[in-house]
C-alpha cells in the first residue's frame, strides 16, 4: 500500500499550486471579444477576430492490445455517436493528419509483414484506389514485428471512425496459420478503412472484401470497431490463413466495450441479414473442423467457435467488457466528457496506453471540415484531450514523430531532416513523465491532476460551439481562412497543454522529492524487463481481472 502524504506535502503542494492556478485558472479567453457577430462584416473582421482569438489563447493557458467503446446516438446527450479508446503498444505514438490524395492508375500498396513478424509472413502488393480521403490518426513504430508506420485507425473526412482492437483466435487457428502468410495486416485494414470509406457499413465491407480477395496477415486474431454518425460495426478477422471474418452492426440503442473485440450469437443466414456480414466459408469451415454442428439446435456463437471463450463476461482486465457496458448504459445520456472520463479511468488506462481518443460523430454537422477527434498524446489517465478537426492543416512539432520509444532508435543516428522536430519537447514523453510521477503516489496526486485536466478540457468544450461557428462563417467566404482559424486554435491549446504539463511535472516531481524521495531501481536491474504496468489504480492492477488481484 502506498503511504499517505505527510503534513510536509501540503506546504510543498501549495508552493507550486499557487502559481499554477494563477496561470491556468485565471486565464480567460474573453469570448465576448471574439463573438460570431464580428465575423459578419467580411474578411477583415474575420482576420481581426482570428488574430485576437489566437493572442488570447496563447496567453491562457501483460497483453499489449487496444480497447474501444461505442455508444449509439439514442444514448448520448446530443444525439451523436461516440467512439472512444486507446492503443496499447510498446512504441512511440505520434499524431498525423493525412491529406486527401490522388493516385495514378496502377499504383500499388505494400501490405502484410515479413519473416520478422510474430507469425512469419511475406510482404505483398495490392492496388491502390484512385483517391484516398483525408484522415487523422496516431501512428506508431512497433507491434508484433509488423513494418512501421502502424495505425489503429482514426477519423476521416466523412466522419468514419475506426478503432483497431485485439481479438484472439482459438489456438487451433493460430497453429494452422501458414508460414509466409500474405495479405493486409490489422494496420493496413484500419488505414484502408479510413482512406476509402464514406460510412461505417462501407468500412466493414471494405475490410471484408480485402480479406476475401487478398487474404489476411495475422498476429493471432484481431478486430476493428467502426462508427459513423448513424451506427457502428464490429469486424473480426481470424487467424488460420482461411480468410475467415465476421461483422456485426451496432445500432442507436447499443453500447459496446471491446477488450477484446467480440461477437456472440451469429445468425446462420448472415449473408442475407442486414445487421451481419462474414466470409462465405464462416459456417462451413467451423463445421468441417468439428467446432459447430448445425443440427444440434445450438446457436452459432462466434467467440466460442472461433475465439477463446466468453471473454465479454470474464474479461482480461480489472473491468470486464460487460461491466464497462453496464457503466456506459448507466451514464446515459452520455456526453463527450463522460467518454473522456471512461477512456482515462485508472481502472483501465495505464502506461501501456499509447494515446487516448474520443470521436464525436454528429449527424447535424454543419460542414465536413468540422469532423472532430479528441486526442490525448499518451495514456489519458494523466494527459489532456485536445480537439483535432479534420480541416486542421498540420500538427505542432511537439506532437509529431520523435525518437522516444521509436523502434530502431538505439541502433541508428537521427535522420537530419528530423533534427529540429526532435529538438522540441515531445508531448508523449512529457505526459508520460507526469504519469510516472503521479502514479508513484496516486492517493496524493491523481485526484488533483484529474481535476486540472478536466477543467482544461471543459474550457475547450465550452469554447467549441463558438469556434466552430466562427469557422463556419469563415468557410462561406474563405475556406482557407477557416482552416487557419481551426489550426491556430488547436495549436494554441496544444501549446497551453504543454505548459500545463510542464508545470504539473515540475510541481509533482518536487513534492515527491521532498516528501518521499525518488525511488531508485536495484543495481543490475533491466530497465526493459517489463512487469506490472505503471498505473494509478490504488491497491490494484488494471491489467488483471478482479479474481487475480492480490
Describe the protein's architecture and organization:
This protein is an alpha+beta fold. It is 35% helix and 17% strand. The protein contains 14 helices and 21 strands. The strands form 5 sheets. Strands 3, 8, 9, 10, 11, 12, 13, 14 and 17 form a 9-stranded antiparallel beta sheet that branches. A 6-stranded antiparallel beta sheet has the order 15-1-2-19-20-21. Strand 12 and strand 13 (232-237) form a beta hairpin. It is globular and about 70 Å long. The model is unreliable at 1-9 and 15-62 (pLDDT under 50).
Give the termini distance in whole angstroms.
11 Å
The percent range for strand residues is: 15-25%
Which sheet architecture does the biggest sheet show?
Answer: 9 strands, antiparallel
The helix tally amounts to: 14
Q: How would the global form be characterised?
A: globular
How many strand units?
21
Amino acid at each position: 500500500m502506498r503511504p499517505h502524504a505527510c503534513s510536509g506535502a501540503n506546504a510543498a503542494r501549495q508552493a507550486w499550486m499557487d502559481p499554477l492556478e494563477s496561470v491556468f485558472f485565471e486565464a480567460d479567453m474573453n469570448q465576448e471579444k471574439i463573438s460570431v457577430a464580428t465575423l459578419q462584416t467580411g474578411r477583415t473582421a474575420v482576420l481581426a477576430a482570428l488574430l485576437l482569438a489566437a493572442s488570447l489563447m496563447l496567453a491562457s493557458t501483460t497483453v499489449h492490445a487496444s480497447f474501444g467503446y461505442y455508444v449509439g446516438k439514442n444514448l448520448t446527450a446530443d444525439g451523436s455517436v461516440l467512439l472512444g479508446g486507446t492503443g496499447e503498444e510498446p512504441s512511440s505514438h505520434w499524431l498525423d493528419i493525412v491529406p486527401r490524395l490522388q493516385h495514378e492508375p496502377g499504383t500499388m500498396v505494400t501490405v502484410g509483414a515479413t519473416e520478422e513478424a510474430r507469425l512469419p509472413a511475406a510482404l505483398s502488393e495490392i492496388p491502390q484506389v484512385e483517391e484516398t480521403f483525408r484522415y487523422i490518426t496516431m501512428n506508431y513504430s512497433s507491434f508484433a514485428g509488423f513494418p512501421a508506420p502502424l495505425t489503429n485507425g482514426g477519423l476521416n473526412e466523412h466522419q468514419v471512425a475506426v478503432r483497431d482492437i485485439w481479438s484472439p483466435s482459438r489456438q487451433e487457428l493460430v497453429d494452422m496459420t501458414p508460414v509466409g502468410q500474405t495479405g493486409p495486416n490489422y494496420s493496413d485494414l484500419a488505414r484502408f478503412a479510413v482512406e476509402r470509406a464514406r460510412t461505417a457499413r462501407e468500412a466493414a465491407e471494405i475490410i471484408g472484401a480485402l480479406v476475401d480477395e487478398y487474404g489476411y496477415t495475422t498476429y493471432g486474431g484481431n478486430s476493428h470497431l467502426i462508427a459513423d454518425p448513424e451506427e457502428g460495426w464490429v469486424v473480426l478477422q481470424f487467424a488460420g490463413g482461411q480468410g475467415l471474418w465476421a461483422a456485426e452492426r451496432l445500432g442507436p440503442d447499443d453500447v459496446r466495450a471491446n477488450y477484446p473485440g467480440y461477437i456472440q450469437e451469429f445468425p446462420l443466414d448472415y449473408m442475407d441479414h442486414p445487421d451481419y456480414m462474414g466470409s462465405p466459408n464462416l459456417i462451413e469451415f467451423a463445421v468441417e473442423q468439428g467446432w459447430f454442428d448445425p443440427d444440434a439446435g445450438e446457436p452459432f456463437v462466434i467467440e466460442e467457435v472461433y475465439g477463446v471463450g466468453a471473454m465479454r463476461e470474464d474479461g482480461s482486465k480489472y473491468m470486464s467488457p460487460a461491466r464497462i457496458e453496464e457503466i456506459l448504459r448507466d451514464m446515459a445520456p452520455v456526453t463527450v466528457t463522460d467518454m473522456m472520463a471512461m477512456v482515462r479511468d485508472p481502472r483501465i488506462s495505464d502506461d501501456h496506453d499509447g494515446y487516448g481518443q474520443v470521436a464525436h460523430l454528429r449527424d447535424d454537422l454543419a460542414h465536413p471540415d468540422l469532423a472532430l477527434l479528441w486526442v490525448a498524446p499518451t495514456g489519458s489517465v494523466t494527459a489532456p484531450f485536445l480537439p483535432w478537426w479534420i480541416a486542421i492543416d498540420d500538427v505542432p512539432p511537439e506532437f509529431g514523430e520523435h525518437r522516444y520509444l521509436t523502434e530502431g532508435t538505439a541502433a541508428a543516428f537521427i535522420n537530419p531532416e528530423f533534427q529540429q522536430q526532435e529538438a522540441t519537447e515531445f508531448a508523449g514523453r512529457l505526459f508520460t513523465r507526469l504519469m510516472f510521477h503521479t502514479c508513484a503516489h496516486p492517493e496524493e496526486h491523481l485526484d488533483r491532476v484529474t481535476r486540472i485536466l478536466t477543467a482544461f478540457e471543459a474550457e475547450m468544450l465550452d469554447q467549441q460551439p463558438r469556434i466552430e461557428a466562427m469557422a463556419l462563417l469563415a468557410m462561406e467566404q474563405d475556406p482557407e481562412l477557416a482552416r487557419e482559424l481551426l489550426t491556430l486554435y488547436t495549436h494554441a491549446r496544444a501549446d497551453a497543454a504543454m505548459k500545463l504539463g510542464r508545470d504539473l511535472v515540475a510541481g509533482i516531481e518536487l513534492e515527491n522529492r521532498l516528501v518521499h524521495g525518488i525511488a531508485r531501481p536495484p543495481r543490475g536491474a533491466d530497465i526493459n524487463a517489463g512487469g506490472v504496468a505503471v498505473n494509478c489504480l490504488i491497491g490494484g492492477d488494471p491489467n488483471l481481472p478482479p479474481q487475480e488481484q492480490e
